[in-house]
Amino acid sequence: MNIDDKLYTLKYSVDTKSHLNPDNEQCRLCESRCCTYICPAGVYEWNEESQSLIVNYENCLECGACRIACERKSIGWQYPKGTKGVTFKQG
Amino acid sequence: MNKTENKTEVIVVGAGPAGIACAITLAKAGKEVVLIERGLFAGSKNVFGGAIYTQAVKEVFPDFEKNAPLERRNIEHNYLILGEKDSTNISYRKSDNSSYSIVRAKFDRWMAEEARNAGVYIVEETVVRELIKDKNKVIGVRTELEEYYADIVVLADGVNSLLAKQIGLRKNIDTKDVALSVKEVVKLDKDTINQRFHLKDDEGSIVEIFGGPMLGMLGLGFMYTNEDCITIGLGVTLNELVEANYRPFEMLERLKQHPSIAPLVEGGTLKEYSAHLIPEGGYKKIPKLVDNGVMIVGDAAMLVNNLHWEGTNLAMISGKLAAETAIEALDCGDFSKKSLSAYPKRLQKSFVLKDMKTYKDLFDVMHQRKRAFLSYYLKKVNAFFEMFTSSDCVPKKDHYHKFIKSIFTDRKISELFKDVWAIVRLLWSILL
Lengths: 91, 432
Fold this sequence. Notes:
Chain A is of the alpha+beta class. Chain A contains four helices and six strands, in the order αββααββαββ. Chain A has one domain (3-10, 17-77): Alpha-Beta Plaits.
C-alpha cells in the first residue's frame, strides 16, 4: 500500500496558506534533505528543475519530525490554524 | 471565567491525558479553569499506541471502568522477536484488569466531557500561539484571536511544546531523544481477532515487537487489539531514520509483510493511518518543569517510560500533581517559581520520576550497544530455537558445542566483554 492510500483514510481541513515554511536558500545547500524521506506523510519533495522544495502541507500529520530532523533547522514550523489540519478519528 | 476581563485562575493548554487530568482535578476543587485545545475536539490531534493503565486512570476517573468507552481488557502480553524469516514469542497471560485498549479520539473526548461536567470551560479549535509574560512571570496566553489571562498556565501542549521552548524552559530537541512512530488501525471482525489472538469476548492482547525491519536500530513495533480492529505500528528513534535513509511507512509495510505478522493482519482494511513523535530522552532530558506562573506536564515535559511503554499514565499523574500544586498556590496567592516547585517535588516522590530515574542510563547504553542488543542477540535467540527445534540426524551435543562456540567467534571477543559490562552497569543503575 502506498502513502497516498494511507493518507486517504484521514480527514483533513485544508488551509489556503502553508503552516510549513522551509527556507529555500538553506534547502539548496542542504546535503541530506532528510525531510524528503523521514516525513511520515511524504510532505516534502525536492524539485530538481526549480531547485526548490515542494511542500504538500495539506498532507501534514503535524508530528513535528521534520522540524527536529532538519539539519539546518530551517523549517518554519507551526501548528495549522485551530479549524485546520488533520483530524484523527482513531488516534 | 470572568469573560469581561478574559481572566481566569488556571489556563491549561492542550486537551490530552495530561491536560484533561489537570483541568478536572482543578475544577473538582472548585477552581476556575479554562482548557484550550487546538483540534476540532479533545483527542482529535492525539495519537498513541493503544493501552491505558487502570490504576493511573482511576486516580483521576475513579469510575471510568463503568462509564468510559473501552475497547478490550488486556490479558496477554507478547514479546515477539523477529528474525529475517523466523520469530520467537514469549507470552505472558493473566486475566486481570490492569490495562485496557482504547481508541484515543473516543476516550479523550469522553474524558473532556467529564471535565466539562465538572466545571472546566473548554475552548476547542483554538491554537495558543504564544505565552504572555509580564516581567518574569507568565500571565496568560495569546491565541489566534484573543488573549486570555490566568494566575497559572499549565503547558500540556504535547511533545513538540513550542510554548515551553518559547519561554526557555525547553531547549531544541535532539533527533536521538525522540522516536517517530507510525501506526495503522486495521479493521477486522471481532471473531477473526479473537481467533487470531486466542481471545474470547472482550479480552485483549498486546504484542511488543523486536527486530524485523527495525533489526539493529533503536526501534520497536507494537500491536494492540481493539473491539473490531487491530493497531499495528512501530517507532524508531529519529536519528536512526535520518541516518538509515528510511521512510517510516515503508518500514511499517515491511513489518506487516513479515511471515509471523502477515497472517494476523491478513484481509484487514485500513481504517486510519497516523504518526506521532514520542519523547524518548528519558530522565536526563526532562526540561525545567516550572517557572513563575507556569508548569509543564505530560509529553511536553518528556515524561515517558520507554522500556515499559508507559506514557499516558505518567501524563495523567503529572497533570494531577500539577493541579494539586496549583490548588495550593491559588489558596495562598503565590504563583512564583518557588511556590510552584512543589510540583516537581511531588513528581519526585511519585512513581513518575522514580521510574524515570531508575532507567536514566538505559537509553545511553542502548544507543551505544544497539547492534549487540537489538540485532546480534535477537538473531541469536532465534538461532537457538532454530537449533533446539531442528531434527537433522546430527547429534545434539555437536549442535550445542557449535552454538556456544559461535557466541565467542561471531564477533570480536571484546564485544562480548563490552556487552557484559553494559549489562552490569545497567543492572547496577536500575537496582541500586
